[in-house]
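Q: Convert this sequence to structure tokens.
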Amino acid sequence: MPKSYPSVAEIREAITELLRTEEVATLATIDSEGRPWASAMHIAGDGLVVYMHTFRHTRKSTQLRQNPNVSYSVCHLPPEGYAARQETRSLQIQGIATLVADPAEIQRIAEISMEQFPWAGETALYDHVKLPDQGQQLFFRIEPVQGLWADNRVRMLYRVLLDFGDGGKTITKVEDYHAVVRGRA
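A:
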């Protein structure tokens, strides 16, 4: 009997779960000379959309405001390491970063971050959040455009390419990674 593969809804659910449970992603921004920079960033997932927080006078803040094209990667690596490799899953995203200026959305970011990561509520991180033109903290929404989902729980080396729509809220296309890569060779 052939192995069944996850539906679009199941892929979306698995990605949403990863973005709500993993705390850190690697964000790649582009400097004014077109060179990439990577930073480890705390994330808060809201469906397929991710929020990241930085401060006004950082390199990445400047780069995000100058060029909204970004990429990020987040993964689940089991604590057991290689022995549990069938539990490994990861997401690579090309997306668009937008500075969040709406007070209600900023409040929502703080709420989902504290809900996902209880330690955040035990800090003063969100005690004095202001609008971007009034404070030092800046929040960026990253809407996915294209991505690669890898999930060894499905089968070893299971990979699919994804296209996103509706402001990054839906998956509009799923393609087998291996078939597409072989087709380009």
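The CA atoms of residues 71 and 94 lie 4 Å apart.
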